[in-house]
Specification:
ten-stranded mixed β-sheet, Spore Coat Polysaccharide Biosynthesis Protein SpsA, Chain A, 14 helices, 18 strands, 2 domains, four-stranded mixed β-sheet, single chain
């Protein structure tokens, strides 16, 4: 129904800059940012049916128009062409610059009217001084019980800080804490776990087998009473007290299967801004070690958006979805990439995976267990798990739909690829034959 493309910017001297290589269609990103923008192709009958542009939405008239077309035609596809087909002229007198406040006001009204038309409990508000919007979703009247599943072993200081954040600095209720104790022997950690269990502040599942993160998580979820489970590492510490409200507000949406958070290192640089498939051979965190105040690529770090994967260090999932896709793979992925594999299977089952910047926590990464390649045995296991992921998900690891094929798979900060992976379907004989078109053999060399 709608087709949109990548774009860049063109100054008055004819110089091109700031290319925006967009992801494939992302409804959540579109609510906070006009992803379609100035070049969009629409089915004429659908475009006419909504009456075209509306007066009073100047500066965001195309955003409002696209939302109304989408609302009038639920179930239609929106397709992305991963090529720069539009050059956005940069003029100081442009309406969107000279009257930014009016453009932002129009965008806010357009998205909020969309929520009213579609019956969604959500509100759009401006983000800072930008033209983007922050979407705040409501919680159900009857809040679901959230089971927080924490695999742990020893590491008293980390576990104590994690639990203090949950018990003292988390607004959301009701919740339960499930500690999956993987053979703690340290006296202080054992005393803490026993004390929490005795006071009824946590339930304890004991598993003294060899470390297998996937198995530990699966056992914790099996013991959970909540309809929502949060997988949480024991080296996570709460920053914002509303972090769980935010994650639950997304995970209860029927179309959403998993939700990830914005995580920081102790020095306030970014640890997790979502996960991109293919980087580093399997997957890697986007924007890792970017300054905490960074806006990210095209303001991604300030906007809720879809991804193929988020880290299992802090991941919310409905318990029925967890069981539907089979939980974490304890057979093939005991330590690494189990969250990547899990999120891919959530996506394959038809659910969205969402990352939100409004749930903020610290992650003291691998502080309790150390590096996954610290020993020869762990290095070998890591290689085997990488090989398994490449065998199971080879095509997706090359072509993450949430990551533009014009961007590099060797850089976590959205650098432009030296060689684009974007396919030109009009040069593909099989694609063309579907439409009865004759296509000449594509010439060799750079295209």
């Amino acid at each position: 129904m709608i087709v949109y493309s990548d774009e860049d910017h063109l100054d008055e001297a004819g110089r091109r800059s700031r290319p925006y290589f967009k992801p494939d269609w992302d409804y959540d990103l579109f609510l906070g940012q006009n992803l379609i923008s100035h070049l969009g192709a629409y089915r004429a009958d659908q475009a006419r049916s909504v009456g075209g542009f509306r007066e009073g939405f100047e500066g965001s008239q195309d955003w409002d128009f696209a939302l109304r077309v989408l609302d009038a035609s639920p179930g239609f596809n929106v397709e992305h062409v991963p090529f720069v087909l539009y050059h956005w002229r940069q003029r100081p007198e442009a309406f969107s610059k000279a009257s930014l406040h009016r453009a932002v006001d129009a965008a806010q009204r357009a998205v909020n009217e969309h929520f009213e038309r579609t019956g969604q409990s959500a509100v759009a508000d401006p983000v800072g001084l930008s033209s983007h919007l922050r979407i705040k979703r409501g919680l159900p009247g009857e809040r679901p019980l959230v089971s927080i599943v924490i695999p742990t072993r020893d590491a008293y200081s980390l576990l104590r800080a994690c639990l203090d954040g949950l018990i003292q600095r988390t607004d959301y209720q009701p919740l339960e804490i499930i500690l999956v104790d993987n053979g703690s022997t340290a006296e202080d950690a054992c005393a803490l776990i026993e004390d929490l269990e005795r006071q009824g502040q946590a339930r304890v599942v004991r598993d003294d087998g060899p470390f297998n993160f996937s198995r530990l998580v699966n056992r914790g979820v099996e013991a959970a009473a909540g309809s929502v489970c949060v997988l949480l590492n024991n080296d996570i510490d709460v920053i914002r007290t509303d972090w769980l409200d935010e994650m639950v507000s997304h995970v209860v949406r029927p179309e959403v299967g998993a939700v990830g958070a914005k995580l920081y290192y102790a020095n306030d640089t970014l640890q997790h801004g979502g996960v991109i498939l293919g980087i580093g051979g399997v997957a890697a965190h986007a924007h890792q070690r970017a300054p905490g105040a960074s806006l990210g690529y095209m303001n991604r770090l300030m906007l809720t958006h879809s991804l193929s994967c988020v880290t299992g260090a802090c991941l919310a999932v409905r318990r029925d979805v967890f069981h539907e896709v089979g939980g974490l793979d304890a057979t093939h992925l005991a330590v690494s990439f189990n969250d990547v594999d899990f999120c891919i299977r959530v996506g394959q089952a038809g659910y969205r995976v969402i990352w939100t910047p409004e749930a903020e926590l610290y992650h003291h990464e691998s502080a309790s267990r150390g590096s996954v390649t610290a020993t020869e045995a762990s290095r070998q296991r890591n290689l085997e798990e990488k090989a398994f992921m490449n065998e199971r998900w080879a095509e997706l690891l090359r072509n993450d739909p949430c990551f533009n094929p014009n961007l590099s798979l060797t850089d976590r900060n959205f650098a432009v690829a030296e060689v684009s992976r974007a396919l030109k379907p009009w040069r593909n004989r099989h694609w063309a034959s579907r439409f009865g078109a004759a296509v000449e053999e594509a010439p060799r060399g750079p295209q």
